[in-house]
From TrEMBL:
Keyword set includes Translocase: yes
Cross-referenced Pfam families: Cation_ATPase (PF13246), E1-E2_ATPase (PF00122), PhoLip_ATPase_C (PF16212), PhoLip_ATPase_N (PF16209)
Designated name of the protein: Phospholipid-transporting ATPase
Keyword hit for DNA damage: no
GO BP terms in the entry: endocytosis; phospholipid translocation; retrograde vesicle-mediated transport, Golgi to endoplasmic reticulum
Organism per entry: Linnemannia exigua
Membrane topology: Multi-pass membrane protein
UniProt domain P-type ATPase C-terminal: residue ranges: 798-1025
Protein's cellular compartments: Endosome membrane; Membrane
Family: Belongs to the cation transport ATPase (P-type) (TC 3.A.3) family. Type IV subfamily.
Length: 1033
């Protein structure tokens, strides 16, 4: 049996030929036997199961624990906790060391379990979705997970497509249906899909089972925009009937049928589907602050070992010194605070909540919660243009036809010319051909008729040459669906001047003029726009005259080589580009019936090629159609600037960010937008590099650019590639110093390469922002990726770390939330480290005064409560602190420059806190022993009380702007501590604590340990104030 022919190695996922479930082939077999045989063969392909879970019931605990303990800090605390089960190393209560680690692990395991359970439930829901399957015994319902290659599945309107399929039939007579692809590629526009013509022509769905046919599908790959296949049908006579299949005949998994019902033939399932192959799990981004904290943790580890060795050395390495060394390492383990990671993660959650609930930037979503501090460290901003700096809201502003030009003010003349051209008999024209039948004398009426004819020709070309489809909504309104906003803008413009698109399917286009007359065109061929060809074309037959016309429109760089010679196109394209308009060249070619039939035959052969199909098809189009096209005109479409773009760019430039604009547009358009958006400052010159052809020319340009410091570089994609290939180091070294760089004609790959190069060369933080699928690779390459929810869809937004609704939100995101996140986390990190250091210094002093004995000063509830109920709330309240008011931070973006220097958390500040901890820990312990020499039995309650009070005062010292939660946490913590004394008689003797002697001496100890820090802070503010002090008054 060879009805299914998968590759021998299914993992290789090679191309496949899949035969139809034709009952006619198996007359001698029972239906049950047929189904059993097919089911057995289908199992050789991957099952159609959605599986997004990270773990299973057996791997969960081992994998989660491995993920935690592969980090040094967690492993360190595990070893410390396990050491307490060794009698010789045991210090105090085991719970003191085990409980904190268990708490951290419990939080992590619980979070992972909840997240994976959610993924499991989503998978189960997707796998249990039921679909109709066409079988020899009729239609039957099957769950999505039971669908196999070769099945025929019915997908109803608004239903998700369960597997990659070829569209066989639809309920639409034309054989077309629309699908929504926003869940696959993020694009919000509807896509048109076409049924296999010979299957659509069958009398019923059940007739599919009688077909003696097969489908060839190329090997599974990631590209959702390409597919090579063939539909082969055995006829009654000799030979085969073959039809080519392309992406227009496919329904990919996770798309949604938007119109009618469809029957699809499953060609890929499970891991072979485009959706699964494009599901990438980007590496978890680690922020710069996290890396800095990790480095400081290593220093703390070295400090712990040094302190332990010092205690052993000062005791002369007496006795079992190696045992004592381990005991000291355990005693001083609080120097490396296990609560640091928990506090920072909780802080990040708070920052994310604040960002998403900021009413001034509504709709902002934090998708990566681990890097909010990075927003405060950005030095390079890489931005897309269309849809990011501009609205992607298109409007046709200019129409140029060589000798005539129309702008917004004169568009009404076009309507007049159209009325003249389409008028019956009075025009003196042949309506279809546009050739004058009037006398050949030259006069005013003839000139007007010529103009009207030319206007009619280009407007008609624009009304027909597109991929726009009018869709009637449920409320009766008509909307235009297309893959590009440019297309919709042009069709809306033709409607405004009097030629309206009223109907479109795969075979016909109907347009209506202002007089209500309908013009019908049969669609013979469509050549869709691609980023490689940069043009789209269509062959139509005018059903009134029978004339065949090939229309084409595209970018000037490719169309200039296709159209007939002219002396105005290049100049006018440049003029429109300088006005910031996106240009499209429109042309046509009339075809005789014989020429078209020759083309169709050659094109059909090229379409059925299995290898190099695309190039073969393009070659036929180029050789037959794209020769000496008649140039009809040039359109200029405006893409309006986003709201607040000028102000945002100016603020970010003043904040010290170097800004790169990466766009696919031509140099003139990009330069115009750079100037109009204030990306280029008034006093900056523009240095342009374009059309470089060799490395020597590139070297000369770079040498010339080297001497220019404050200028804007504008460079095209070809020149960029030349520099990257031959002068990579020199190119990046020079360009990263420039304040503004505009890269034109950039491919998505080039955008990602540039982002990666800047990161690698400068070691600085970069932010990439874009709105389309072509920006995803760049966004994922950045330290901080920001996606804009725009008209191109949500693909960039879904792939980004932060999703915003418009470009201007960057100001608040970076200058305010970025500042707060970085400053707060830096302060929180240092304070948590200080909290662990000070208690370890007190332990060291205590041990030193008692013959360097490794005996714990605090045990049990005190050591656990110290980092939790006694100090955690006040310390964590630092995540609400702000050093400057919001209006000051946004009014003076220059303050942002200080953040990028990383001074808030540096080796200098770390060692300052280390010295503070040594001083305060020593002062508290020494004074406790000295002042309470006669009450030594109460040394624990004395020193611990002074320690807690000192920490509360230190938190107050560090706060710049008081928040009600800060005040509440300070007061509540003090009351909790005082109240706990009653319930912990083991550590606190109430008869002693309630004496005046205890109160005033503890007050003195606390004053000595903390008051000098207040004095130092006042002196520093007086003689070395921070940069913002004058602004905040």
């Amino acid at each position: 049996m060879d009805e299914l022919k998968p590759s021998k190695d299914s993992k290789a996922a090679k191309s496949r030929t899949i035969d139809f479930h034709a009952s006619g082939k198996f007359n001698s077999q029972s239906t049950l036997a047929i189904e059993h045989a097919f089911a057995k063969e289908k199992k050789r392909y991957p099952p159609n199961v959605t599986r997004n879970t990270k773990y299973n019931i057996f791997s969960f605990l081992p994998v989660v624990l491995w993920e935690q303990f592969k980090f040094f800090l967690n492993l360190y605390f595990l070893l410390v906790a396990l050491s307490q089960f060794v009698p010789a190393l045991k210090i105090g209560y085991i719970v003191t060391y085990v409980a904190p680690l268990c708490f951290v692990l419990a939080v992590t395991i619980g979070k992972e379990a909840v997240d994976d359970m959610k993924r499991y439930r989503r998978d189960q829901e997707a796998n249990s979705q039921r679909y109709q399957m066409l079988t020899p015994s009729g239609f039957k319902m099957v769950p999505s997970s039971k669908i196999r290659v070769g099945d025929m599945i019915v997908v109803k309107k608004n239903q998700n497509v369960p597997a990659d399929m070829v569209l066989l039939r639809t309920t639409e007579e034309s054989g077309a249906c629309f699908i929504r692809t926003d869940q696959l590629d993020g694009e919000t526009d509807w896509k048109l899909r076409l049924a296999v013509p010979s299957c659509q022509a069958l009398p019923s769905d059940e007739a599919l089972l009688e077909l003696n046919a097969s489908i060839y599908a190329d090997s599974p790959h990631k590209d959702i925009h390409s597919f090579i296949g063939n539909f082969t049908r055995e006829g009654d006579g000799p030979g085969q009937h073959m039809e080519s299949l392309s992406v227009d005949n496919t329904l990919w998994t996770n798309t949604v049928v938007a119109s009618g019902n469809a029957i699809g033939f499953v060609i890929y399932t499970g891991r072979d589907t485009r959706a699964v192959m494009n599901t990438n799990h980007p590496k978890t981004k680690i922020g710069l602050l996290d890396s800095e904290v990790n480095r400081l943790s290593k220093i703390l580890c070295a400090f712990t070992l040094t302190l332990s060795l010092s205690m052993i050395a000062l005791n002369g390495f007496e006795g079992l010194w190696y045992i004592y060394l381990f005991r000291f390492l355990i005693l001083f383990s609080s120097i490396i605070p296990i609560s640091l990671r928990v506090n920072l993660d909780m802080g990040k959650t708070v920052y994310g909540w604040q960002i998403m609930n900021d009413k001034e930037i509504p709709g902002t979503i934090v998708r990566t919660s681990t890097i909010p501090e990075e927003l405060g460290r950005i030095e390079y901003l890489l931005s897309d243009k269309t849809g990011t700096l501009t609205k992607n809201d298109m409007e046709l502003k200019k129409l140029h036809m060589g000798t005539m030009s129309y702008s917004v003010d004169t568009m009404d003349e076009i309507s007049t010319h159209l009325d003249t051209a389409y008028s019956q008999q009075s025009s003196g024209f042949n309506r279809t051909r546009g050739i004058s039948t009037a006398p050949t004398h030259i006069g005013g009426n003839k000139a007007r008729r010529d103009i009207s004819s030319r206007v009619r020709d280009i407007v008609q070309a624009l009304a027909v040459c597109h991929n726009v489809t009018p869709v009637t909504e449920d409320n009766g309104s008509i909307t235009y669906q297309a893959s590009s906003p440019d297309e919709v803008a042009i069709v809306r413009w033709t409607e405004s001047v009097g030629l309206t698109l009223v109907f479109r399917d795969i075979n016909n286009i109907h347009v209506r003029n202002a007089g209500g007359e309908i013009f019908e065109f049969e669609v013979l061929q469509v050549f869709p726009f691609t980023s490689e060809t940069k043009r789209m074309g269509i062959v139509v037959r005018d059903l009134t005259s029978g004339e065949i016309t090939f229309y084409e429109k595209g970018a000037d760089v490719v169309m200039a080589k296709i159209v007939q010679y002219n002396d105005w196109l290049e100049e006018e394209c440049g003029n429109m580009a300088r006005e910031g308009l996106r240009t499209l060249v429109v042309a046509r070619k009339r075809l005789s019936e014989e020429v078209y039939q020759e083309f169709e035959a050659r094109y059909h052969v090229a379409k059925t090629n299995i290898t190099d199909r695309t190039n073969a098809m393009n070659a036929v189009v180029n050789q037959v159609l794209e020769q000496d096209l008649e140039l009809l005109g040039l359109t200029g479409v405006e893409d309006k600037l986003q709201d607040g773009v000028k102000t945002t760019l100016e603020l970010l430039r003043n904040a010290g960010l170097k800004i790169w604009m990466l766009t696919g547009d031509k140099i003139e358009t990009a330069t115009c937008i750079a100037i109009s958006s204030k990306l280029v400052a008034r006093n900056q010159s523009i240095h342009q590099i374009a059309k470089l052809t060799n490395a020597l020319d590139a070297q000369d340009e770079l040498d010339l650019l080297r001497g220019k410091k404050d200028c804007c570089l504008v460079i095209d994609g070809e020149s960029i590639q030349l520099c990257l290939d031959y002068l990579r180091e020199e190119f990046i070294e020079i360009t990263v110093r420039l304040p503004v760089v505009v890269c034109c004609r950039c491919s998505p790959t080039q955008k990602a390469d540039i982002a990666r190069l800047i990161k690698q060369y400068t070691k600085k933080r970069i932010c990439c922002i874009g709105d389309g699928g072509n920006d995803v690779s760049m966004i994922q390459q950045a330290d901080v990726g920001v996606g804009i929810v725009g008209k191109e869809g949500k693909q960039a937004s879904l792939a980004a770390d932060f999703s915003v609704n418009q470009f201007s939100y960057l100001t608040k995101l970076l200058l305010w939330h970025g500042r707060n996140s970085y400053k707060r986390s830096a302060k929180l990190s240092q304070f948590v480290i200080h909290r662990g250091l000070i208690i370890s210094i007190m332990q060291a002093v205590f041990s030193a005064m008692f013959y360097f004995a490794p005996i714990a000063l605090y045990q049990g509830m005190l050591i656990v409560g110290y980092t939790t109920i006694y100090t955690n709330a006040p310390v964590f309240s630092l995540v609400l602190d702000q050093d400057v008011p919001e209006d000051i931070a946004l009014l003076y973006p220059e303050l942002y420059r200080d953040l990028t220097k990383g001074r808030s958390l540096s080796y200098k500040t770390f060692f300052s806190w280390l010295l503070i901890s040594v001083y305060q820990g020593g002062a508290i312990m020494i004074l406790s022993i000295w002042l309470f020499e006669n009450q030594f039995v109460n040394i624990v309650s004395i020193s611990f009380t002074a320690l807690v009070l000192n920490e509360l005062l230190m938190v107050a010292l560090e706060i710049n702007t008081w928040h009600r939660f800060m005040i509440l946490s300070e007061i509540a913590t003090l009351f909790i501590y005082v109240g706990s004394m009653v319930f912990l008689p083991t550590y606190f003797d109430l008869n002693f604590i309630l004496t005046k002697t205890f109160v005033w001496k503890v007050a003195v100890i606390t004053m000595v340990s903390s008051f000098p820090l207040y004095v130092i802070k006042m002196l520093r503010r007086k003689f070395a104030p921070p940069s913002y002090s004058k602004l905040t008054g």
